Amino acid sequence: MTSESTTTTPPFPSLEDWQHWTLVMGRAQQMLLETWSDSWKAGDPAPGLKLPHAPDPMAMLTAGAEAWGKGLESWGRMLGGMAEAAEKKDKRFAAPEWHDHPLFDTIRQSYLAISDQLMKSVDDADHLDAEARQRLKFLTKGFVDAMSPSNFALTNPEVLKATLESRGDNLLTGLRHMLDDMKAGQLSQVPKGAYEVGRNLATTPGKVIHETPLYQLIHYAPTTRTVLETPLVIFPPWINRFYILDLTPEKSFVRWCVENGISLFMVSWKSADESLRDVTLDDYVLRGQVDAIDTVRDLLGVESVHTIGYCVAGTTLAATLALMQARGEADKVASATFFTAQVDFSEAGDLKLFIGQETMALLEQLSAETGIVDGRVMAATFNQLRGRDLVWNYVVNNYLLGKEPPPFDLLHWNGDVTNLPAGWHRDYLETLYKANRLVECGGIKVDGTPIDLGQIQTPLYIQAGREDHIAPPQSVWKIMDHVPGPKRFVLAGSGHVAGVVNPPSAGRYQHWVNEGEPRSLDEFIEGATEVKGSWWPDWLAWLKALAPKQVAATGDRIPGKGKRKAIEDAPGRYVRTR
């Protein structure tokens, strides 16, 4: 037999190999025991966030590996579509091994074909109303994403390769990452220490000039010789930190506004603790938004302010505008801008899937002792809306490959959670999301005053994200149907966050405007003009046209130099409070 025809036999593991792998397994067991021992000593046998009936992650990994190890080729061929699936681009299967190795290529094609068939079966299912179909589609997509062969060590060639090359060190490192995340009760999406508020995030200069138990008010330092006479007050969502609008300097909406001559104020909500367990809608409207508006008016001696409400803060801003209209105080607000905000929840998207009886009962259980909803619960909910990108991507990268996630300022913010007053949170979901009472004339009351959105005459700028799954554009559009005053609607490319945080300098995405009078979102899109890049300049032109007068950026326009002295430097204490 010639040497070319000899079959090479893999070398038998040496004593050193056996010793190494025994050490790996022993170290893994030690790490697990140390973690559970520490948690028992701390009186917390389940490290991190306690979620009743949470699935065992290791059991899921094992079950998934077994499932994809059996019979996928035959299933894929039965369902057909493997050739079509092979042509699909999917970043989960970008590694060449998924295409070059016959076994993994078959697994990949089979999975994609079966996934397509499962999703199509939801669309083809009979006797389902729209809500049931939406729920089934969401659950099916979640199942399909979770069962991807890329999520399991034994069916992911990248993981197998890394395991052999590192001799198991990737799995040990990944296990440490997983145990650390379990202790924190939260999946890591950025490297620890990559970002810090006040160091490389939320760095726009300013001062905290007003503080209440509910919020701090930041006044930003002007950088231009003159500023618009009418100042701007921004109300970010209290379910997140305000610095989504003041990320790194090149992405900061706050910095961009200041550089364009706007006297800018930002509300920084306090992450709820037990002292805030009893706050209600009245508090966020009266002692939050109205108080901030009056504080700025008094400080600068102006009749009115511009306002922005982002997401849920936009919802309450609509109630604030209606309250002021009813009380004859509408002239306090020169304009209101809504970033991806909803007032009519009849088509509120996938988040409506999380307001069933089971979810409400779980929230009740989790907040029974403190009256507070842990912010990690909300973070987990939003992550599930994009589970493939925000959950499983990091399971593979962090736990199976043992890598650090890449730094990304937006995802640092995404993981910097805030706690919520449980009673107000449940009321928001029950009264607005489920009962949709904000759009009913007198459906809710603030401080005893019936709220009627149909009376609002304040000029509105309404921004929606084309790919927004949290506040879908068809839902955001509905404010156009309920508020009779002058309005401008702009549809931005991308979603709930990237569609808002899109600085002109980035040259990304696009937006659509329609100078006609469309009566629906479909009509708006049909007659819209696409404009490349950010919508921020369009908004700025609209704002300046409403109140173009400018004043010198001196005196009380300088933070801390007017009647309200500086309490501390921006970004303040509240944004750092967990």
Provide a brief overview of the structure.
The protein has 578 residues and is an alpha/beta fold. The chain has helices at residues 15-41, 57-68, 72-79, 82-86, 97-100, 102-124, 130-146, 157-166, 169-184, 253-259, 281-300, 312-326, 357-366, 375-385, 387-400, 409-415, 422-434, 473-476, 479-482, 521-526, 536-546, and strands at residues 206-211, 215-220, 226-228, 232-235, 264-269, 305-310, 333-339, 372-373, 420-421, 445-446, 449-450, 460-465, 487-492, 510-513, 529-532, 550-552, 568-569. Helix content is 42%, strand content 12%.
Mean pLDDT: 85
Quaternary state of this entry equals single chain
Total of helices:
21
Strand content: 5-15%
Shape: globular
Q: Total strand count, please?
A: 17
Low-confidence parts, pLDDT < 50 over ≥5 residues?
Answer: 1-10, 43-79
Using the CA coordinates, give the radius of gyration.
Answer: 27 Å
First-last Cα distance: 73 Å
| Sheet with most strands | 11 strands, mixed
Strand order of the largest sheet: 15-14-13-12-7-6-4-5-2-1-17
Given helix and strand content, the structural type is: alpha/beta
**Helical residue percent?**
40-55%
Describe it for me?
This protein has 578 residues and is of the alpha/beta class. 42% of the residues lie in helices and 12% in strands. It has 21 helices and 17 strands. It has helices at residues 15-41, 57-68, 72-79, 82-86, 97-100, 102-124, 130-146, 157-166, 169-184, 253-259, 281-300, 312-326, 357-366, 375-385, 387-400, 409-415, 422-434, 473-476, 479-482, 521-526, 536-546; strands at residues 206-211, 215-220, 226-228, 232-235, 264-269, 305-310, 333-339, 372-373, 420-421, 445-446, 449-450, 460-465, 487-492, 510-513, 529-532, 550-552, 568-569. The chain has an eleven-stranded mixed β-sheet with strand order 15-14-13-12-7-6-4-5-2-1-17, with helices on both faces. α1 runs parallel beside α9, α6 runs antiparallel to α7 and α9 crosses α15 (387-400). The longest helix has 27 residues, at 15-41. Residues 1-10 and 43-79 have low confidence and may be disordered.
